[in-house]
Amino acid sequence: MRFFxxxxxxxxxxxxxxxxxxxxxxxxxxxxxxxxxxxxNYDLLPHGAVGFTAAVLPWIEMICGVLLIIGIWVxxxxxxxxxxxxxFTGALAMSMFRGLDIACxxxxxxxxxxxxxxxxxxxxxxxxxxxxxIWTQTFRKNHGSAEKAS
Amino acid sequence: MIQREEMLQTVWRAxxxxxxxxxxxxxxxxxxxxxxxxxxxxxENAPTDTAGAGGDGIPSIGVDAAALHHKNGTALFVDARPxxxxxxxxxxxxxxxxxxxxxxxxxxxFTAVEPDRLIITYCDGPGCPLARHLAEKLKEMGYNRVYHLxxxxxxxxxxxxxxxx
Lengths: 150, 165
Known about the structure:
heterodimer, B: 2 domains, about 10% strand
């Protein structure tokens, strides 16, 4: 039990969670044009906002992911990434609900819709669980150390 | 329990992080040679392949962008291959305008297709010139929004995109 509350395990979880975002961001930063198409496919944003999103979103993932792994402003970074993940999951669920046959555009930018959306959705929910756990653990840790200090 | 002060600090830091990322993203996109148009993105000017664009003034369009147009029904796909190849299989909804029979078939094409329609021509094979020839001819005839899909049929089919029959 101590292992799961230890800082090593938390650091490992941060590395997995943050690393997933860094990995996902990399492909999008390299090829923003394809990512723009993936974003547009969701049909949720007006075309005028697609370019901006495609240019900026990967950098939020990249910067917050790297800082989370290193351990700087963990709670803040975890909050940003969890919010993003929540938006992604919502977008994915909506596209499923609307019956859109589109590619996830999450880790790879291949436009061809391949794996089932349920898989992506489950993955997102699992990631959300991990991200939320990291977030609460960080608070608990901070709070605990504050209590010890006082 | 999470303290209010701590929560506020987290939200503040999260806002700062997003602002920083937005600045980095915009700067990087502006400085890089192949940045996307920040507020003027359109599917038709998004991913175009440089391969085969040459200096002939006919831009090529990427499979991704073409697929998006196909999905949204915003483009007319024109198959430049001979009729026999077209019959064997073509992009769903495409019309056949064989490059070789352009002169005899153009009339009916012109009456059916408005000049401002977005047109994507294609043939088969990376070195196939038919789609580009056809695109050039269509442009000469007054169609201004013409693109050609390099290695169109092969790449389209291999990507698992909609085909018929």
